[in-house]
Amino acid sequence: MQNLNRPISPHLTIYNPQKASTFSIWHRISGVFMFTIITSSLLIFNNLYLSYTTVFLVPLLFKYFLFDWLLFSCKLLLQTIFLYHTINGIRHLLWDSVIHVNTIKMRKDANILLFVAFIIILIQFCVEFQLRK
Predict the structure, then answer these.
(1) Residues 33, 81: contact at Cβ < 8 Å?
(2) Residues forming the annotated binding site?
């Protein structure tokens, strides 16, 4: 048999990514990210609360490591991820109740998801920026 040096099966690079599949993948990634952030922060707070030594970690963090812009950007990032996950979850609930399962409506819902998420993120940024002044 000849060695033709070609893949056994098609690879992902030959497929065009669709909005629905991309949103589904990002929905899972955002869920894992939020779970990781919540559990790690709970574990850190639990260790700080149950430790026998006095830990002055918060003033040290605020004084040397966490600057104002870093806290602002992390807060905005977490709010964005939570917002995206929530809106996309509502979209999945609509699909589970057999609403908007049509291909045209799914594309329209994807565009609405992007538009609403962008507008709310922009509003959050403006509100947080005004509170900083």
Answers:
(1) yes
(2) 85
pTM, two decimals, is 0.68
DSSP letters, 106-125, are HHHHHHHHHHHHHHHHHHHH
- Binding-site residue set for heme: 85
- Say if CB 53 and CB 86 are below 8 A apart: no
Q: Give the tens place of pLDDT for each residue, 77-132.
A: 888 899 889 988 988 888 888 887 788 888 888 888 889 888 988 888 888 778 76
Strand locations in 42-91, DSSP E?
Answer: none
Does 107 reside within a domain? yes
What's the number of domains the chain is made of? Answer: 1
Rounded distance between C-alpha atoms, residue 131 and residue 128, angstroms: 5
